[in-house]
Structures are given as structure tokens and as C-alpha cells.
Write a structure and sequence with these properties.
- The structure is a single chain.
- The protein is of the alpha/beta class.
- It is built from 12 helices and 10 strands.
- The strands form 2 sheets. A 6-stranded mixed beta sheet has the order 1-2-10-7-8-9, sandwiched between helices. A 4-stranded parallel beta sheet has the order 5-4-3-6, with helices on both faces.
- The N and C termini lie far apart (about 55 Å).
């Protein structure tokens, strides 16, 4: 099957721009530094997950679903983007968020409530345990809602399924075409990786066009282990939908855990410095959970000499702007105090 034959609902403003970071390039001494602007996909503050949702929601509608059930962290970008896209299509959204309900709704959580999502919370020691608990609650809610006459469609964390990954297989084809139009040869694609679906989809796209670009995921948390194997398996299943014969292995997957810090949604000084640097050179906003850590990873790999300053690098901005407004809870006290100076 060709990717054009897989059902898709066009929701996002695609293709997103691929543009040069002129000021940041000078600041860090990398002449050929570009950004892929998936923070500009449009609906509900945008973000990269809209690419996955175009395929996932097409699948949901083909199954006559009227209710979407999904999960993520309390400030999940995926749950916010799911709520936005489902609302646009006239579907009900039920969210199971991993963490304790905060006293004040801010950031993504505020937007989800504003858009009418039904929200449940599950407490857990970590995301792995939380994902298990959330899975049980989602299935229970689905049974209850279906008894009431609804038709439910459940999506896992990050929309990381072969159908969802197709969004980023298509995204690789998109950026490959844009790079040709700009007459540049991309050496590295660098982005934040959490549930692995973005990276799995990109790997399939890379294989379709036989590209030699280096795809590097900067991990944002220690969950879903063994992580690289999980991505390889997801890429394999995504490729199978397209009739690919050649398998994927862990050798195809490159990720770095060096820039996580203490854990998922816990701020790091390096990420916060990257957020400030991007804002003060390009007026582009990164977030502390995903893109801030990814940019810290990009800068760190260059500083360590693992990536040459002479390489052509694309930073894939995956969105997440609303979490910056959560403030000290995600950015940390030190960051907020430094801003006041």
C-alpha cells in the first residue's frame, strides 16, 4: 500500500516552514542551522502530534467512533492536540491524565478544559506505572460509555501506533522535498522523543527515499524501556503497512539520554538556558518538557564534538508552547528568579 492510500483527514496547516535560524546560527557558531516549524501546525496551539492525529482520527471515523479516549501527562501536548482536533471534527474527548490534579488549571490543562474535554486523573510513581493504570481506566471508561450508546476509540500515550506513526513518515517526505527546494543536504535531524512514535515514523520515511540523514532523538524521560527496541519494532510495524520487506533493528535507532536530567517534566538548567537563548535570538518559544531539552541536546552534542559545526542541522520544533505558561512548576524557581534580574 502506498502512503497516499492510507486514510487521512487534513486538519493541520501543512507543510510547516523549514527556515534558517540566522541569529542562533551566529550565536552558537553553526552556519547551517535550520528549524522545522511544527509549532505552526495551527489548530489548538499546534504541535507535531497533529500529523499523527490526521491519520488516527481518520481511522476513528472509519470505525464510526464518536468519542476519543486518550492519555498523557498532566501537561501533555498530545492530549491537548487530540482535544483540539476531535473538537473540530465534532467528537467528544475523554482524557486520563497521569499525575495529581493541580489546584490551578494552567497551560495545556487549561486549554483542554476550555475546549470541553472530560478529564480524569490517575496518580503514579512514574510514567510507566501511570500508563498501565491509565490503560485500565481508559478501557473501563470505554465499556461504560459504550453501554450508554457511544462508540469509543482509544489512543495510547503520544498516539504511538503504526497508523499514528504514518504522520511522521509523511513528514519525512515533506522535509526531504523542502530540503531539495532549498538546495541543502541535511546531515542531522534532531528532535525531542518521548513515546517514540515520531522517530519511528521518520525512520520509515528515511527508508522510503533512501536518505542518509542522521536521525537523532533527544530523550525527555526514562520510560518505555527498552526504548530503542520499542522504536525499532514500531518502525517495523509502520513499514509493514506500506509493504516494506526489510526489517528495522535497534542499530537503526539513535537516541541520547544525557539531557533528561532528573526525569520527565523536571526542568534542567541546560534546557532552561536553551529556552532563553532561542527566545532572545529568534523570538521562538521552546518548552521545558520537550523542545527545551531537545535544543539543549543539540547544543550539547555540538559542544562535545559529536556533531560538527560544519554540518547542516535541522532542529524539529515539535510544539508545546502552552506549557511555558505553567511557570515555576515546570521551569523551576531558579529560572523564574533569573528572569526577574
Amino acid at each position: 500500500m502506498k502512503i497516499e492510500e492510507i486514510p487521512r483527514i487534513r486538519i493541520g496547516r501543512l507543510p510547516t516552514p523549514l527556515e534558517k535560524l540566522e541569529n542562533l546560527s551566529k550565536a552558537i557558531g553553526v552556519p547551517e542551522l535550520y528549524i522545522k516549524r511544527d509549532d505552526m501546525t495551527g489548530i489548538g496551539y499546534g504541535g507535531n502530534k497533529i500529523r499523527k492525529l490526521e491519520y488516527l482520527l481518520a481511522d476513528a471515523l472509519s470505525k464510526k467512533a464518536d468519542t476519543i479516549i486518550t492519555t498523557g501527562g498532566v501537561q501533555s501536548n498530545f492530549t491537548r492536540e487530540t482535544t483540539a482536533c476531535a473538537t473540530k471534527l465534532g467528537l467528544k474527548t475523554v482524557l486520563v491524565l497521569i499525575g495529581n490534579e493541580p489546584e490551578e488549571y494552567r497551560g495545556n490543562l487549561l486549554l483542554e478544559k476550555l475546549m470541553g474535554a472530560e478529564i480524569h486523573f490517575v496518580s503514579a510513581k512514574n510514567l510507566d506505572e501511570g500508563a498501565e493504570k491509565a490503560g485500565k481506566l481508559m478501557r473501563s471508561l470505554s465499556k461504560k460509555l459504550e453501554k450508554e450508546g457511544n462508540r469509543c476509540y482509544i489512543m495510547p500515550v503520544g498516539g504511538a501506533t503504526p497508523i499514528g506513526c504514518m504522520g511522521f513518515t509523511n513528514a519525512f517526505l515533506e522535509i526531504n522535498s523542502q530540503a531539495k527546494d532549498l538546495d541543502i543536504k541535511v546531515d542531522y535531524l534532531i528532535f525531542a522523543t518521548g513515546s517514540g512514535g515520531t522517530q519511528a515514523g521518520l525512520l520509515v520515511g528515511k527508508r522510503i527515499v533512501n536518505s542518509d540523514v542522521n536521525i537523532i532523538g533527544i530523550r525527555v524521560g526514562r520510560m518505555f524501556e527498552p526504548f530503542n527496541r520499542m522504536i525499532a519494532e514500531m518502525a517495523e510495524k509502520t513499514g509493514e503497512l506500506l509493504g516494506m520487506k526489510k526489517s528495522f533493528s535497534e542499530k537503526d535507532v539513535v537516541t541520547y539520554s544525557d539531557f533528561i536530567g532528573e526525569g520527565y517534566d523536571i526542568p534542567t538548567r541546560e534546557a532552561n538556558n536553551a529556552i532563553k537563548l532561542m527566545a532572545r535570538t529568534e523570538a521562538i518559544i521552546l518548552d521545558p518538557v520537550y523542545t527545551g531539552k531537545a535544543m539543549a541536546g543539540l547544543i550539547g552534542l555540538i559542544d562535545r564534538g559529536e556533531i560538527s559545526k560544519d554540518d547542516t542541522i535541522v532542529f524539529w520544533h515539535t510544539g508545546g508552547d502552552p506549557t511555558i505558561f505553567v511557570g515555576e512548576e515546570l521551569l523551576g524557581k531558579e529560572f523564574m528568579e533569573n528572569l526577574r534580574e
